[in-house]
Amino acid sequence: MYFYCYLLGIYTKDGTTKSLGKHTSRFYLKLQKKIAFFVIMEQDDFRAICAQFATGVTVITTTHNSKPCGFTANSFTSVSLEPAIILFCLKTASETNAAFQASKTFTINILSDKQENVSNAFASSKNSQEARFEQVELISIKSPLIKGGLGYLTGEIIKYEEVGDHIVYYGQVNEGNRFEGNPLLYAKGGYQRLG
Hints:
By secondary structure, this protein is an alpha+beta fold. It folds into 2 domains: about 1-40, no CATH class; about 55-190, Electron Transport, Fmn-binding Protein, Chain A (Pnp Oxidase, Chain A). It has helices at about 25-35, 45-50, 95-105, 115-125, 130-135, and strands at about 1-5, 10, 15-20, 40, 55, 60-65, 65-75, 75-80, 85-90, 105-110, 140, 145, 150-165, 165-180, 185, 190. Strand 13 (about 150-165) and strand 14 form a beta hairpin. The relative contact order is 0.17.
């Protein structure tokens, strides 16, 4: 549901009004003439619309205190080709942020359509980091690389910043490779596959 918010009151689509107060300065009267309204989108609407956009699924990993850690993410994208820069997002409240910020390294594991169980293992908040990695085979431990994926990118975190309820990480890619297979996709609140 959308709310049209005027400077002198809040008007919903059914025409009802909620006053914001009687006192209005000349400044706000002038400003009101220039700005008719702005739109506030409810969280459920925003989530439902974004769910229409199909994404790949990744498990993003690092090593902290000689132990691997990681999480499932579809909030991953390339940013720049020259230099090769990617970004990914992680909830601000997640304890995993400490590992990435301390290690300043990352590995993007791009999951295949045969790795739904891997995605679930690393997405569950009930699973400890140790429990997550017990369910996969690693090709590399230093930069935790999960066997069976479609590809990987490794590199260094060059910047991170808090945006809303997430922390956005920017990483410069140093190495990568790709393998045969089809991607695991996520859309409309569930896993999808090509074809």
